[in-house]
Amino acid sequence: MSSKEITHHRWADIPIETLSPLLDRKLITGDGMMIAHVFLKKGCVVPRHQHHNEQLTYILSGGLRFFLGEAGEEERMLDVMAGEVLHIPSWKWHKAEALEDTLDVDIFSPPREDWINKTDDYLRASAK
User: Fold this and answer.
1) Beta strand pairing status for 34-40 and 102-109?
2) How many CA atoms lie within 13 A of 4 on its CB side?
3) What is the separation of C-alpha 101 from the centre of its chain, rounded to a whole number of angstroms?
4) 3-state class of 57 per DSSP?
5) Pick from 3, 4, 55, 125: most CB atoms within 10 A?
6) Exposed/middle/buried for 58, CB within 10 Å: 0-12, 13-18, 19+?
7) This prediction's pTM
8) How far apart are CA 69 and CA 9, in angstroms?
């Protein structure tokens, strides 16, 4: 969608995309940024990954345990709970596990092309 026009969205009208029995999401994308509602059921694991996109994760309800750093390097564990925001710079390794049923808002710049094109197999195959 081109940002040459102003658009208005209602989350209730955005179709939900099911990636696994434990993971769903909704996306709104502009030219230079993307916002997503990500629904994770307790125990859902988002595998360790990295991307060139800068990321903000805002937890609306529930909580995620993040594992920050590449395997083999010094790894840091951080629980991010409702009302908290985590900023993940480009190319930083991270993994997440839902501590309880969680709704988070992820904001990416630029948009995640793998999410738009549905080529995010690492997420679809491993979020169990």
Assistant:
1) antiparallel
2) 1
3) 14
4) strand
5) 55
6) middle
7) 0.91
8) 35
